[in-house]
TrEMBL record:
One Pfam family it belongs to: PilM_2
Annotated SHS2 domain residues: 1-169
Protein known as: Type IV pilus assembly protein PilM
Transmembrane segments: none
Domain of life, per lineage: Bacteria
GO biological process: one example: cell division
InterPro entries given in the database record: ATPase_NBD (IPR043129), FtsA/MreB (IPR050696), PilM (IPR005883), SHS2_FtsA (IPR003494)
Signal peptide: none
């Protein structure tokens, strides 16, 4: 099974394999850009363009796997931890979950895709268990299934993008006990913030800040089309004044957004510290972003590289991968579902 991350800017594919002795091997990875407007705010706006991009990235990767794990944007999924009596049969559990779900979901149950997972015993009651409930509008789920099918693939798992990212980070970084970690996924249109304590999410938030702001600045400054500006931004192929006049102010704004998010976390939760920041998403590839965030926040900052501690297949270009790795965090987390 392959992991397939469909974002605003493009489609990323990751295929992992069992390398034995507890090791995972990266077999293949590939990316394909999407036309502007094909995906907006996590919604598939042009099915044909996205299915074509999925078809191209699948062919480019060289994989033969047809089963795919896909992700839903966090804003499109309602998640809730609920407490239920321990010892219920599977059928009883389903009935109870549906009953509880109707209290938290603002749609008719026949309009949603619903799933749940038993986390374990409830902390304060031996007679109860904690269950994670997840629900999304069925039409949103079916859009992604249709994309996979349109590209000749079979959607096997539907995850939540933020959960997949956390899974990949934990697999790569081995989060330490009692450590509070903030993960900033800076995408094209939005930044998703997750704060983890002992590997569990204690805070999540989405901010309307992303790399498209920099691309629009390039369009205005140099009179380019948006697609050309995006391509040349990624390649670093821009006039000499780009770094000083456009990139530096954008990086300052990015660091300011991170600092604001951290302050908001402090004021709205009981926590008063963050031990480490990880940066991921397409904007994490911008030169200098890690250093400026570390300097402004005074918190140890790293790029989230999901392929740490992995073996590499013969077709993987390791040098190029190191440069692009933070953009593959979600796709890698989805691909890890193969081993779930």
């Amino acid at each position: 099974m392959i992991g397939l991350d469909i974002s605003t800017s493009g489609v990323r594919l990751v295929e992992l394999a069992d390398a034995g002795k507890g090791l995972v091997r990266l077999e293949r990875y590939a990316t394909e850009s999407l036309p502007r407007g094909a995906v907006v705010d996590g919604n598939i706006e042009n099915m044909d363009q996205v299915a074509d991009a999925v078809r191209r990235v699948w062919k480019k990767s060289g994989t033969r796997a047809k089963h795919v794990a896909l992700g839903m944007p966090p804003a499109a999924v309602i998640t809730k931890k609920i407490i239920l009596p321990a010892g219920l049969s599977e059928d009883q559990l389903e009935v109870q979950v549906e009953s509880e779900a109707s209290q938290y979901i603002p749609f008719a149950l026949d309009e949603v895709s619903l799933d749940f997972d038993v986390i374990g015993p409830a902390l304060n009651s031996a007679d109860d268990m904690e269950v994670m409930l997840a629900a999304a509008r069925r039409e949103k789920v079916e859009d992604r299934i249709a994309i996979a099918e349109g590209a000749g693939l079979l959607a096997t798992v539907m995850d939540i993008e933020s959960y997949a990212a956390r899974s990949a980070l934990e697999n790569a970084a081995g989060l330490l006990r009692d450590q509070i970690v903030a993960l900033f996924q800076i995408g094209a249109q939005a930044t998703h913030v997750s704060v983890l304590f002992n590997g569990e999410a204690v805070y999540e938030r989405e901010q309307p800040f992303g790399g498209n702001t920099l691309t629009q600045d390039i369009v205005r400054a140099y009179g380019m089309a948006f697609e050309e500006a995006e391509t040349r931004k990624k390649a670093g192929d821009l006039p000499e004044n780009y770094r000083a006049d456009l990139l530096a102010p954008f990086l300052e704004n990015a660091a300011l957004e991170v600092t604001r998010a951290i302050q908001f976390f402090y004021t709205s939760t009981p926590y008063t510290r963050i031990d480490r920041i990880y940066l991921a998403g397409g904007c994490a590839l911008l030169p200098g972003i890690m250093e400026i965030v570390a300097g402004r926040t005074r918190i140890a900052t790293s790029l989230a590289s999901p392929f740490e501690n992995m073996a590499f297949g013969p077709g993987v270009r390791e040098h190029q991968l190191r440069q692009e790795a933070p953009a593959y965090l979600v796709a890698c987390g989805l691909a890890l579902r193969r081993f779930g």
